[in-house]
Specification:
The complex is a heterodimer. Chain A contains 1 helix and 8 strands, in the order βββββαβββ. Chain A is mostly beta strands. Classes of the chains: A mainly beta, B mainly beta.
Chain lengths: 117, 163
């Protein structure tokens, strides 16, 4: 399958992160154009692929994860401890025939992302 | 432009030209980074500052010669404050911000991953999965010390508030 998917994990708790807003943008003419905003489900994934296989196209893409709001809504997180607020991941789809899974592992003081599978 | 030109110039300027690998490639062609010969540096007891450490988890070395653009958020845009290049130990020669220059706000360090790995001759797709990587974080207390380690490979990265 081609296209783009993501998965938001709450690395602080070792659980999926539900209810996280993700803004998906594409690079067009030297600027980022917002394609859509989606929200993670109970499994920390989006109900539909971020970019479905049928629309897969080479290019530069961006995911902005609204971790700040997610963390603030959780009991036990002090706002003062939130160092990584809204991480942005920019990546290239260099071969539209491949699939790009881009997870986000988040916690108040850190985040990680990688090309997953 | 040769993506390592800035790197080479900066490292030579800092007296480190002989240590870092990117500077050597003009003569020897792409080479792996130099052997690990640096030790951690404690910053305990120092005043308010923002410091950066790039760590190359692909080669298992400091991320020497990484070009980084520091920017602060103003409205909906990021305004570039400075561009630095990491030295042989993976750290810029000076803290990114010190004392009164450290202000509360949302920051971005834009790291030039693709140019970095190209400088070492690492074979990757073009464009690579990760090219210009924004590392975003927030400084909430200008009286504290913030250390920002970034652990990276061509295919992923993590960063955290260090010490």
């Amino acid at each position: 399958m081609a296209g783009i998917t993501t998965h938001v994990l709450d690395a602080d708790r070792g659980r999926p992160a539900p209810g996280v807003r993700i803004d998906f943008s594409v690079r067009e003419g030297g600027a980022w154009r917002l394609v859509k905003s989606v929200v993670t489900n109970a499994d920390g994934r989006t109900d539909a692929p971020i970019l479905p296989a049928a629309e897969a196209k080479a290019g530069q893409y961006q995911l902005e994860f609204h971790i700040d709001a997610y963390l603030k809504a959780k009991p036990g997180v002090a706002e003062a401890d939130i160092f990584v607020d809204n991480p942005v991941v920019r990546f290239a789809v260099f071969d539209a025939a491949q699939h790009y899974h881009v997870p986000m592992l988040c916690a108040p003081g850190t985040c990680a992302t990688y090309r997953g599978s | 432009m040769d993506p390592s030109a800035l790197t080479r110039r900066s490292l030579v300027g800092a007296g480190l030209g002989a240590v870092a690998a990117p500077g050597a490639r003009a003569q020897a062609g792409p080479a792996p980074p130099s052997a690990l010969a640096t030790a951690p540096k404690s910053q305990a007891g120092l005043g308010p500052r923002l410091t950066l450490h790039a760590i190359d988890n692909f080669h298992g070395t400091p991320g020497a010669g990484m070009v980084c653009d520091l920017a602060i958020r103003e409205g909906d845009a990021y305004r570039t404050l400075k561009t630095v290049t990491t030295a042989a130990n993976g750290r810029p020669a000076e803290p990114l911000l010190v004392d009164e220059a450290l202000k509360v706000g949302q920051y971005e360090v834009l790291m030039h991953f693709e140019a970095y790995f190209a400088g070492f001759g690492v074979a990757l797709p073009r464009p690579n999965f990760l090219g210009l990587v924004p590392v975003r974080f927030v400084i909430r207390d200008a009286g504290q010390r913030y250390h920002l380690p970034v652990l990276f490979t061509p295919w992923g990265y993590s960063y955290y508030r260090g010490s």
